[in-house]
Amino acid sequence: MSAPSASLAPAAAPPPFLPKRTVVLVGLMGAGKSAIGRRLANRLGLPFIDADTEIEAAAGCTIEEIFARDGEAAFRTAERRIIARLLTEQPVHVLATGGGAFMDPATRALIRDKGLSVWLKADLDILLARTARRTHRPLLRNGDPRAILQRLIDVRYPVYAEADLTVVSDDHPPDYTVDRVMEAIAPHSAVPSL
Question: What share of the chain is helix, strand, coil (3-state, %, to 5)?
Fold first, then answer.
């Protein structure tokens, strides 16, 4: 099995602490999981892995194609398998998950057991503005994006609230949100030995 396509950029300074477990970012599409995750990984000097990218690499096609060809249930099965592999076979890293990953009880239990989950919580208007910039969102293709996102918020936010930590993702610059995530995860981390 090939190694995940993690990206690791050299950190500007040694990290002030190292998470004891993989930091798993959860939240709706548009919450900033990939953008914040890359910056967070850089700050911590850890690899960044995007679960959706890993699923696409394993399937040899895009998530949109998986949804169209096999349906959402097949996608969720692949997603569960990939996330399990990343949490059990890879060293500590920053992992961005797809919006529906944390909704799966088995995936949620694995994340709770093997990772430190951080919910990036964004309001409807922020999500709508961010997702409008991209056209690869299968769940937003069939209807009014505002109504679809509101339904997803109603269903998913009570489950996302089970994450270990919650950080608001708003219209501040991404580095501001990364600072908030760093503050939130610091008590769950270890000071690196010099």
Answer: 55, 15, 35
